[in-house]
Write a structure and sequence with these properties.
With 218 residues, the protein is of the alpha/beta class. It has eight helices and seven strands. The protein has a seven-stranded mixed β-sheet, with helices on both faces.
């Protein structure tokens, strides 16, 4: 058990507001770190986990482009991303020099199937955009053996989490606050191994989260 001398000199408020730079994200409405560098729009616990990962030369496909695309590229990964929103696509196109590929696909089928256009199996597939059920099915078909799948807002997508677990992935949840939002949510990383404990997992319900109806989800 930590002794008083080992306790952090920072308050929880200071950790989130100064350490993570939360006020900057509120002002910019973008997921950025305290120093202004791009962050994924994941929860802060998930971001800290990803910060530890050496992503050099990893092949990453991302459903939903944004600052996460730049974050992974800055970490040395080779990133391909698809976007469904024409306005946001144009915004990202101006910043996409570091990316290996960026597509605009405004319909469900083409969006989910765009991962096939690269012709690779991926080390990481990230599902953080539109039509997540269809994207999860394509992710399974195109993630490399031993590769990871990241699902953001997993507390809203019980059907997607159950689908991935049913195909031999073990779900690890990162609940908490993150950039921009004033509520908590869950980012989950799915590890490619079956576990006897998978059936014991419940669905994530982050303290401070919000209820989202099916009609509100992408």
């Amino acid at each position: 058990m930590p002794t008083p001398a080992a306790e952090s000199p920072c308050s929880p408020h200071e950790i989130v507001f100064q350490g993570h730079g939360f006020p900057r994200t509120l002002e910019s409405k973008l997921p950025i770190a305290a120093d202004g560098s791009p962050l994924p729009w994941y929860t802060y616990p998930a971001i800290e986990y990803c910060n530890q990962l050496d992503a050099t030369n990893l092949d990453i496909f991302e459903y939903g482009s944004g600052n996460s695309s730049l974050y992974w590229a800055h970490k040395g990964a080779k990133v391909w991303s698809v976007e469904h929103d024409p306005v946001w696509y144009e915004n990202m196109r101006a910043k996409s020099a570091q990316l290996c590929g960026l597509w605009l696909q405004a319909d469900r089928e083409s969006y989910a199937a765009s991962i096939k256009d690269v012709g690779l199996a991926f080390d990481i597939v990230i599902i953080d955009g539109a039509w997540r059920n269809e994207c999860a099915a394509e992710a399974l078909a195109h993630v490399r053996s031993g590769g990871l799948i990241i699902l953001d807002n997993s507390d809203w997508y019980k059907d997607v989490t159950q689908f991935l677990r049913s195909h031999g992935f073990f779900q690890v949840d990162f609940n908490g606050f993150g950039p921009v939002n004033n509520y908590c949510w869950t980012t989950s990383i799915f590890l490619p191994f079956p576990s006897p404990y998978a059936e014991r997992l419940g669905h994530p319900h982050p303290i401070g989260g919000i209820e989202v109806s099916k009609s509100d989800k992408w």
